[in-house]
Design goal:
Elements: H1 20-24, H2 26-46, H3 57-64, H4 70-82, H5 92-103, H6 114-126, E1 134-137, E2 149-153, H7 157-161, H8 166-169, E3 190-198, E4 202-210, E5 213-220, E6 237-243, E7 249-256, H9 261-264, E8 272-275, H10 277-285, E9 293-298, E10 301-310, E11 316-318, H11 320-325, E12 334-339, H12 349-354, E13 358-364, E14 369-377, H13 383-394, E15 399-406, H14 413-417, H15 430-435, E16 442-448, E17 454-458, H16 462-478, E18 485-487, H17 501-504, E19 512-517, H18 519-541
Parallel strand pairs: 7-11, 8-10, 14-15, 14-16, 16-19, 17-18
Antiparallel strand pairs: 1-6, 2-3, 2-6, 3-4, 4-5, 7-12, 8-11, 9-10, 9-12, 13-15, 17-19
Helix pairs in contact: 2-5, 3-4, 3-5, 13-18, 16-18
Amino acid sequence: MRFEPEPLLVERSQTSRVSNEVMQNWVLVKERVIDLAEQELERWLGDDLKEWNEAATLILEKYWRSVKSTSEAKKIVEELRADPDHLLHPWSGVFISWIMQSAGASKFKKSPAHRVYIADAKFNRENNVNDNPFWAYRINEIKPEAGDLVCQRRCSKAQYQDTTERPKKCVTYDSIDNVDENGKQIAWRTHCDIVTEVRGDSIDVIGGNVSNSVSRKTIPLTPNGYVKKKSADESQYIAIVKFRDPPTTMNVKIRPDLTNSELNSGPARSERFTANNAVIEFLEDAGSGLDRQVRIKVGEELGLFTLIQRQNGTGIRVGPDGLARLGLANSNGANGDLDTQVTNPDMSQVEARDASELIERISGSGKDLIALAPHGGDIEKLTDKQALRVQRRLGASLARSWRCMGWKAGGGASKRWHITSTEISEHSFPVLGEVFQRKYIHAVAFHGWTEDRIGVGGLAPISVRRQIVQAIRTALIAAGSNIEVRLESSGGLSGSNPNNIVNRITASGKNGVQIEQSKPAREKHWVTIADAVADFYCALIGI
């Protein structure tokens, strides 16, 4: 039988509310939890406050209002301040509850007693409650991270040593949700602190009502990174309440859509899907959503797709070309998995190639020029090498490069990983998001296409594009090649769309150059083309 706490009367102040968007994004909420813990610590330490100080009254009332009415909170604080022994109304659980509420952690089970939310988090884990980020673990089961709670029991040495009293007073992870003969959770004495920093051998935690104030302490870790057991068994650590990252995968029904023009026409038709409100809500919780990318997997088939619209009905819908991309040509659809993790952050280039994966890389730190390869690896071969070569020619202090590289064993990397440059979202590609934190004077993007020529487009001034055409043409002639090089000013591959990342990433929005290259041009002359582009920008920047 599991204890269910009584509803609490909560009166929230306007200042403690957060937007729905922040409440739904677990990552942002976790960051806010850490920031608030640090801020409260600074407040108490900066003024050398104790709970009986008059200056602490309004602060403590604020904490208590997270679990009590305004009048109850005021009365409680008056009583605890007047208590000469400082034993009335422990507020460490209230401190945690206020921080969680203020950060927007709406799923957290607020309570003056730590045991209540520990038991609730244990229930979430045991019952696989995926829409709640708070799951409880034994300390030897999971490593602590910033934003988690580290919890210990509080029983006396005599209680622990008395084998008849120990089960009644000294709680463990396994007994935290035990109830008495009336079905009420046993009133275990516990304490939890918020993890704010993790090092190799220790963590820093912040807690309330520690020495009648808010304080920080350091907890040692084992060599493997787990919380180290305390030498005093009576006050042993019993649990970590994990503030998990949001789930990134969802199983959905994939259905064909033969009527939506956005899914049935245009060069990106095989890369798009629509979704109903339930799917979009899940994606937004996981940090994705409209106009962003996700992986869609059906069996062994996998494709990168952009969510473009809401739709009624169930699951998601894709057009005929999108179905074919997933190995579902001429079918009525199937069940599949959405995954909001677009690129693999942990694999090396060799590992990604062997695993048919997608990765990002960044080089350089300058802002005069950014060289982009959105479709590197085997998607549009050798374009990533061109972007890196240009960046290195200009030097790290003047230029950066961003390369997204994907592979697929047996061929088909483009079918799996390609997303058109006008729809690539920096919110779905973490390294690209870092690149977008600044704007660049110039940008050039290297691409491959099926035409038999080289096309130079973008929104950079036509004089710039003409000079690049001439620079590439001259370099190819010197190399003995007669591949045609010309300006591209219209069409889906001309780079003239303001939403193209090569244009968006420049400070003016009108200084991007897109270079489309035939396969023979890339295979035989990728170095020649890259060097011609690098020479042009070196002269333009004045190196």
